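User: Hello, can you help with two protein structures?

Assistant: Certainly.
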Amino acid sequence: MADETLVQGRREEGDLPRFEPATLKLITTGRTTGLPHIAIVRFVSLKGAYLVIGGSRKSDWFLNALAGGSVKVRMGDSVQGATCEEFADIETVRRLFSKKYGARIVRDWYSGEQSSALKLTPTTALSRRGGIRGEGEAKLDFKTWKAEGLDYRAAVAEAFDSASEEYDFTIGGNFINVWIRERSIEELLRLTRRDDVLLEIGCGTGTEAIRISRHVKEIVATDISPSMIALLRRKVEARRLAGKVRPLQVRAVDVRRVSGYLPGGRARVVYSFNGALNCELELRRFPRELWEITEPEGYFVCSVRNKFCLEESLIQGALLRFRSMTPRKRQPKMVSVGGMDIPAYYYHPWEFAAMFKPYFEVEREVALPAILPPPYLNDLYVKLRSRLKFLEHADTTVAATFPFNKFGDQTLFVFKRNDSPPQDAVLAR
């Protein structure tokens, strides 16, 4: 059920306009974990409230809503708070559902004895702040953004704060994003040992850290966003991972601040996935800071977004979208994070690698992905996946091979620490 779909229904007084979304995104708080729980549900509007049906009273979102008494409702770019209570007249709700969606859907999904209805009554005005859009759907250009006089570091932190609540749902619902995550973890685990204490830069909500923590002693997970770190702390508590994952709010270029949490003040393996470093304005001074906190013979595994993606150009060309064939050419590129537009700096693989000399040498470069399209074209690929699934195996086969490894959506680098950089090596700021 895509929440962009529009359904034509009869308008009654107090209802939303004649055309309304087919679904809404219901954000509840987990009864036990305290973590955000998101469900996409069908609804009808009646006299300023939203009515929804749970196919079963045992559904997590249904029980969360009742237990908490309040929820957030998102439709497209708009979000608002609402109180929640059980709605006794379920037959009225079914009748309204039948008008909007048809009798067959009501019969197949909502006719069981376990079905119950909820009434969601808005308590706040509709707000567009934090409306979730795709990364490539920024509405501001860099000139306009710069004219606002925003502090870049604060803007990045605020954007990821805004994205934190729905981040796992958004990423987890994108097949290519999940595929990239699995490939990234696979590459990292080639290097790790059971007794390692890893350092992660740009951990987000900690999905990767929690997964990887099963294979190592501990992970020190850092991020610039206080909301992302707060959410990870709740995950650690809920999953009883204290001592396995340690969340810290630290900016990438301040990485040496975490030395006190690492054995001997250094980590043997450091990693940063999914383009976190694309949002670091002072990246040129990062390699030296990283070198100081990495053990001799240690590794840094990271992925960054590229200035040119071959598959993107080929697909956009095939769709006759010629102006969209090289959307990354002009830097910085504006991206949407948590519904807020921020600049991100993309790199050609060779220029990114050059910034790390003489502190690190490249051991391996892997395109993520090499053949599959970038994540923002996920819906197009998923529609055709039954016929194109063989591309996934082909992608893993050629991803580390020249020239395929130079032109993916992202490049994953395996850097090895150079133990004897020139004493006078100072990277330009």
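That covers the first. Now for the second protein you mentioned:
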Amino acid sequence: MADRNRHVLVLGAGPGGLACAHKLVEYGYKVTVLEKESFVGGLSRTLIRGDFRFDFGGHRWFTKNKSLHDWFLRLMEGQLVEVERISRILFNGKYFDYPISIKNVLQTAGLWTSFLCVIDYGLNTLSMALKKRKIETMEDAFVSQFGRRLFDMFFRRYSEKVWGRPCSQMSSDWVSQRSKGLSIWTALTNALLKPKDKKAKTLIETFVYPRWGYQEIPETMRRVIEKAGNRVVTSAFVKKVDVSDPSKVVVTYDKDGKSETVTGDYVVSTVPLTSFLTYALEPKPPQAVLDAAKSLEFRSVITVNLMLDTPQMTKDTWIYCHDEGLGFARLHEPRNWSPDMAPKGKSSVVLEYFCTKGDEVWNKPEAEMVEWGKRDLCRLGFVKPEQILGGFTERAANAYPVYSLGYLDKLKRMRDHIEQLDRVAIVGRGGTFRYNNADHSIEMGLVTAQMINGEVTKAAVLDINTDLEYHEKDMVEAGLKDGELVRPTVTGGAAKS
């Protein structure tokens, strides 16, 4: 067992960093969390305007790890609602269910189009088997799972909106992480062999959600950490992480215009890995590691958050918008996740515009982005201009690690350097340059705490979220017992009475 008198420094107060600190506090360690923003939660932020609440993009909680789910239920006891998931794809003015339903495709696209999709999938599968083609790009992976026709219908446009480049220039790893095992075959078996037992669901249909917004999760962890006498320091910009002394770690940060230092025995970083290596870590990594870090990039996102004078705009939790004429790629309506996210009789919507920091979209002023969002939303016919009460934007520069071709070799070089540092660990989506959901990052944080406590190795941390299977496949609802969820429950976008 490790020495619990040690002081651990955690850089970043997102879900992963706070989960690590939370677990270390449970063990009895001293912890200091340094967060550059004035708030905790990172991308899991809830924005408040009057009586309206907006998550920065839609975040739902789900995990196939029962022990993690039980931990979450204990953490958030009394704060959760259960939500029925309704997600759709908007393609050429028509709505399709997501995950893809064969019955819905037949009804919406028509029998002939559906027949062509199935034949195309079969021919493509046969061709790949005969030619033994390697799957290297995002396009290869999607086509192998769905055929080219469905790829063009449901995946190409959206993916290219999100990543800002052709699918032929992206690694297949993203598809393996996000949709491996989801295919026409999965959709068929799910439709034809759907189990009668409602608790055994092959594609998750419900999820739990904090009734006041997703930021309640990091805020709850923060309260536990501070109640135990530890510090969560916000508006603290980390400038240097000095690991030159093998017996300690010294972190220098700016706070309120002053430079401060804190010394610890271990550092856990959720800082974007590229930035951590290039500007913060001392001694500087070898040039090959720096070159690798400088060559990788993150995709950015701007949310346009609109207040609406309508009780409900849609029934959906998400709508993935593939139409090329729309600027945003996805929308969600917060009140469909929890009625408490909007005042009675009103609603709201969050539109996600993907971009790269410094490009034309990123540089648009807030007023222009809000007007763009209004035009896009009205074009869909959900609301009229006079029903939009106002809006604002929020931005994140390092939202999505870009899995460009060849990224994995560069990432390995970077992680190998971290691996040899005895007093350094990396956690989270940005910290590990891995497309994590919040549950993955939280699990990483908890396992990192176990590693510091001598229970597991570093390898156990980076094994999280590496299963090459669709992350909702064979999801079993575990640990949801009567009385553990707060009512009212949201179903189909409407609260049960």
